[in-house]
Amino acid sequence: MTKAEVITKISEKTGIQKDDVTQAVEAFFKVVKDSMADGDNIYVRGFGSFINKKRARKIARNISKNTAIVIDEHYIPAFKPSKVFAEKIKNSKKIKQAATQA
Questions:
Q1: What is the tens place of the pLDDT at every residue in 9-39?
Q2: Sign for the pseudo-dihedral over CA of 54, 55, 56, 57
Q3: Given its phi and psi angles, is residue 46 left (phi above 0), alpha (psi -120 to 50 degrees) or beta?
Q4: 78-82: long-range contacts at Cβ-Cβ below 8 A with a sequence spacing of 24 or more?
Q5: pLDDT tens for residues 86-96?
Q6: Which of 40, 47, 27, 24 is nearest to 77 (CA)?
């Protein structure tokens, strides 16, 4: 599902115009990005957490040149779903059907 499809669904379910929904969704994403860039984590009860995960310094290999390179310690954004959200996905009949058909 794309962002445009999400905006359309929200607009249909709430009766709010697409332009207003687009502004709200864009504002949400901007707040998440800006807050995480400032080092803050975002916790949405019943949905999940947007967190900054620390990756330790490590030595990796450049296989094509057969050399070692150092990757410094850094942070990456991550999403951790809440227990309620994770349970809903685990118990989803549509996902179980798709898994058995694959």
A1: 999 999 999 999 999 999 999 999 999 999 9
A2: negative
A3: left
A4: 78/50, 78/51, 78/52, 78/53, 79/48, 79/49, 79/50, 79/51, 80/48, 80/49, 80/51, 81/47, 81/48, 82/44, 82/45, 82/46, 82/47, 82/48, 82/49
A5: 999 888 887 77
A6: 40
